[in-house]
Structure formats: C-alpha cells, structure tokens
Amino acid sequence: MRSLGFGLDRVVVPIFRWPRISAFVVLCLLALTAYGGTQLTFDQNLRAVFAGGTDAYQDYIQTVEDFVDPENEVLILVEGERLGEPDVFAKLRDFQFELQFIEGARSVVSAFALRLAPDANGDAPLVIDDAEAGLTPELLAEVRAHPLFGNKLLSNNGEAMNFVLTPEEPKAPLAITRAMRQEIEQIASDTLADTDLEVTVSGFPVLRLDIVDVLIHDQIVLNTAGVLVGLIMSLIVFRSFVASAMTAIPAILAGGAVLGMIGLMGTSITVMSNVVPALIMVLGYADSMHLTYAWRRYRAEGADPREAARLAQDEVGPACMLTAITTAIAFLSLTLSDVEIVSRFAWIGAIGAILGGMLVLAVHTLLAIYVGRFWHPTRDSGRNLLMMLRRPNAAIGRFAVTHARKIAITAGILVVVLGTMYFSVPPQHSLREHLPTSNPANAALGRIDKLFDGAFPIQIVVPIGTISPTSPEGLEKIRAVHEAVAGIEGVDRPLSLWSVAEWLGGDLDGGDNLDAVSRRLTELAEEMPPETSSRFFGRDGASLVTVNIHEMTTQDTEPLVDEIEAAAQSAGGPDVTMTGVTVLTARESNRTISNLFWSLTLAVVAGVGAIMLAFRDWRVGAVALLPNALPIFSTGALLFIGGHGMQFTSVLSLTVAFGIAVDDTIHYLSRYRTSGAALKLPDRLIETSRHIGPVLIGTTAIIIAGLSTTFMSEMPTIRLFGQLAAVTLAAALIADLLVLPALMAGVASRWFEKKTASPDSKPAKQDAPVQA
User: Does the N-terminal or the C-terminal CB of the chain have fewer CB atoms within 10 Å?
Assistant: First the structure.
C-alpha cells in the first residue's frame, strides 16, 4: 500500500463503480446516526473532571458515601439591605417555614432553625425567638457565634442569609431539581414580595441542572453557527451555490454523524466532548474545500463531473485522510490520562475524526457526480478568492526561499525562547472554571464564598477505632484535630462533634463534665435525623471534621491543603485522611495536567511519526517538526506572558490544535511531492506555495471562523478551547507558509534538491507559473 491515507481514502473506490448503491449505503449510515442523535444524554456529574481509578478519587467517593454529600445540598441565597428590618425579617422566618413543605425536601437549615443548648429539662429554645423584633446587632453576633453553622447562615454585615435545603432523593433526576427550584422561586415571590430582597437558588444540584441546560444549548448554537459560518465562508471563497453546497453538505453531515455516533456509543456528552461534533464539522469544511478546489480546477480543464471527482480524490483524498489520522492520533494521545472524562473525550474525538474524514470523502464524491453536473465552467470560473491569493502566496514563497537561512535561524531561536516560556507555565485549575460564568447559580456560589467565610469544603476523616466517637476518648481525639486545624490561617471555623460539645456548654476541660457531655452527646446522636448525623458520624465508626476555605487557584490551595493535612495528622495520627472537592482540585489537577503534558508530547511524536510513515521518508518528518512545534510554543508563551496557568482545557486544546495544525503541513508536502519535479528546488517551492497556499489560507480561515462560534458558549472551558486553538492554528499557517519552505530551501536543502516525485504518485496538473 503506497497511499498517504494508509488506504482509508479508498473508501471512495466503490462509489465510482456503483454510485447508486454507494449512495444508498451512505444514506443508511446517516439514518443510523440520526437515530443515535435521539439517544443522546448529557453528563450530570460535577466531579467527572476528576473521576478515575486514583486513590484520591476513591477516597472522596467513599467519604461522600459514608458522610454528608455536599453535592446534595440546595443553597438559597437571600440578599438585601433591608434584610434585618423587623417586617422583612419576619417574612424571612415565614419563608423558612414554607420551604419545609416543598415536595421532595427532607430538611431546611437556616438561622431561624438554630437553637440554644438544651436546659435541664431538655428544652432547646430558638436563638431567634422574636423575628418581629428584627435583626439587632446583638442577635447578629449571637447567630454568627453559634458553633453549629452560625457563620454559614448569616453574613457578617447582616445583609445576606443562606438557607440550606437537603432533598429527600440524593442525586435527584433533573426534572425533580427543576421543579424544586421553580417552587422555591415561587415561594420567594409570594412570601418576600415588596421586601426588595434578591433570592438566588444555587448549590450543586442546581449547577448540575444548569450545566446540562448549557450543554444542550451549546449543541444547538455551536452546530447551527458552524453550519452558517461554513456556508457563508464557502460562498465567499467560491462564489457559487453549487460549489458551496459541495463544500458545506459533507461537513455538516460529518458533524451530525459524529453527534449521532456519540448517542449510538451510549456515552454522555460532557463539558469537554460538547465541542467535538462542531470541531469535526469545521475540519470537514477544510477537507471539502481542498476537494472542491481541485474538482473545479479539473472541471475547468474539461473533465466531466465524475472524472473530475476521481482526479480530485486521487490528488487530495489521501492527504485529507492523513490529516484525519494525525488528528485522531492527537486525540488518542489523551487516552493515557486516567481521568475518565478526558479519556472519553479522546475516544470520541479519535473515532469522530476518522468517521468524519471518510464520510466527507464519500459524500463529496457523490455530490460531485450528481450535483456537480449543474456547475459549468465559465470565463469567470477561475476568478474566485483562492485564485486571487495565488500571486501573494507566490511572493511569500519567494521571500521564504530567498531568506531561507535567516528565517530558519529566527525560527530556531523562537522555538527555544517560546519553548522555555511554554514549559514555565504552571498548572492551574479552579472548580468553577467548568461552570457557566453568567449563570446566576454560579455567581451566587461566588458570593456565598465571600459572604459566609468560604464555600469550598475540606472533609477530614478521623478514625476512632473500636471506641465510640461520642466517648470521652473519642471526643478528645476529635477535639485535637478540630483545634489543630482551627489555628491555621485561611481556615474557617471547623464543624465537628466537638462543635456540638461546645454548643452543649460547660467546662469541657474537666473530666467529670466531659463525661457528662459525652453521655448527652450519645443521647443526642440517637435522636439526630440522618441528614444531621451524617455530618458527624460515618458508617464504620469514623467521625468527620469539616472546614471551609475561600476559592483560590491551585497554586495557593495546595500549600494550604498540605498544611491542614499535616496539622490534622500530627494531632490525630497518620491514619487521618483528608478529601473533598477542594482537595481533589488542588492535588489531582496538577497531576492530571502534568500527565496531559506527556500526552501532548506523545501527540507531537506520533504525529510526526505518521508523516514519516506516510511519506516513507524520515527527513520529511524531521523538517515538519519545527513548523508544528512553533505554534504550540507560541500559544504557551502567550499564556505565560499573560500570567495565566495551564488549565485542563489549555492542554486539551493545544493537543487537538496540533493534530489539526499538522494538516497544513501534510497538504503542503503532498502538493510538493506531486508537482514541479522538473523545476529547481527554489522554483518548485515557490510553485507549491502559489498553488497550495491559497487553499491553506482558506481552510484555516474556515476552521478559525468555525472555532469562533465557541466564543458564544456560556462554558468558559469551551470558549478557552476555541480561543487557544484559533491562535495555534493561525500561528501554524504562518509557520507552514514561511518557515517550512525556508527550512526545505535552506538548512534541509540537501534532503530535497535531488528528490523527485514518487513513482507511484500521479503528477498533478500544473498551472503556468506566475511572477510575483
């Protein structure tokens, strides 16, 4: 087999022999993927970004199963300057009362539910016993000082209150969460009318609901925008409805087929894989443009639609499939990650790239045969935008070969400088970077973090052994851990069984009183409802100490997490473990991002290796390395200069963008290989730039225009993916039009001066050279 596309481009061979049967087969495949589209589901798991087989993740899963799960709490934030006024404060008490009757609500915790310690008769009066009197400074201080949740329920300025609602059903279906939110908002509207208070429903269940809504919205917007952008760009480039249809329809069907494939695979669309169908669509536009450009040229030279299609496929089809293969390799490199959501993204992207590439070749051929007959060459056929770009591209090629050595040296220096910046970009991750920025629930979570002394929990599991957590010995161990972490700067007041002991009051340093508190705690524990006891007691006898910290970057979080763990283990023993979303974010993100760096390295090596195998010449792969490393380093340098960290999405976009950027290199080398063998090396490179440069500009413009649709996404990760990929692809175009021919004409000229076109490849039809 001598095909650049490793034989996959031969998918079009049966079409030329049996076009009608082939059309039927393609229609059946499209019908199957259309059915798959009806089976699409969307991932609701907020912790999916860390899901995998690591010990840290398994510890977290075990902890949320044994203790309270923060992902199952609905937070209701009420804000307003009039919050403490007597009539408004009384209405807030009524609001608390009404919330308890919402269908599916197990419990509601707020400042109105706080109680004083039980008296001798066991009575525990409410802290707020007269809401009609309003929120006085003394009452505010008393609520905030309450050892059980006080500072989590009322802000320091008395202008914000937090209500915590626990649903009956953990991880309730989205329909139940949606109905619950609507009922909460309706109760707020009825109860708090004319109070000027702002009520926002937040918490992980609501964020999970909103993320799925955004994913569905993005699928509609991104794919619709991708279709429109591709059609408009095709019309601008070709100035022909037939040629535009031949370019757009294969790409649209490829993107739709990949979307249906996801449904057929039974996998869910995630915050990462959400972009794949639109990405395959814009790649399909690029391949279709190469095919349409070649097909029109052969038609203008007198070939009939079928023959022109065959010649275009022979000339461009193998290179198109090789670009699909290198893109798939870039995706597959991400399967090295042990994070499930990344691995799933990688497999969907890899399979989609191959499926989309083959489908574009097949559909374009069918359209060329059956629709191409409606396009007829005219004197103005060659007067399209791509033809107008030939002279400027010849000038660029001439500049590159004339100043080859200077350009090569400059590129080498840039690779070293930009590469140093690239490798200096630190890993960075924030839990909320995967949440829609404009979303009210997400914005409310940020305000809760500022108003209530931190909203990002760290769960410290204290093994007690065979003794009871409420025993004096158990309480002493819990106390030691509680007080050790409470003394760390940046840590909120801990919540543990020792908090309950403090609430019960008395001289806790006295042995007799501690025994009495222990007995009262044991009695109280037996009366606690499950949603309360799970905050303190585990299934295996362990106890939980919870602290909250403010949102911060992983660079700041990780040292704080390490300090908390060291203090907890020093006080409670080495078997004390620490987990939670905050801990996973701080520790797993750095490890995962570092692993993805290796995936990117593998993508570069494997992509260059695929070029070597396809062209059967290691020198071709070697000369392709620098022009494709330069764009990645350039984008990384921009992150470094801008003071940004390397996020999950940053590495993913660079990896995928590399796989796409290699496309230009492949098409340039493919055109060079099949044309101008009789010319001297400089003239041959100029002729190659003149011919292929306009198409590379056109395809890059279409891909970047397609990626620009991601800027409309509410997901910051999707927007970042599109921005970084667009910058990388623009840099790759410059490198392929300027650096690649300069290397071939300069430092690597000895490798190419004596090479002729491969004997197995048919020379492409040459146009008369132009002077620039």
Answer: N
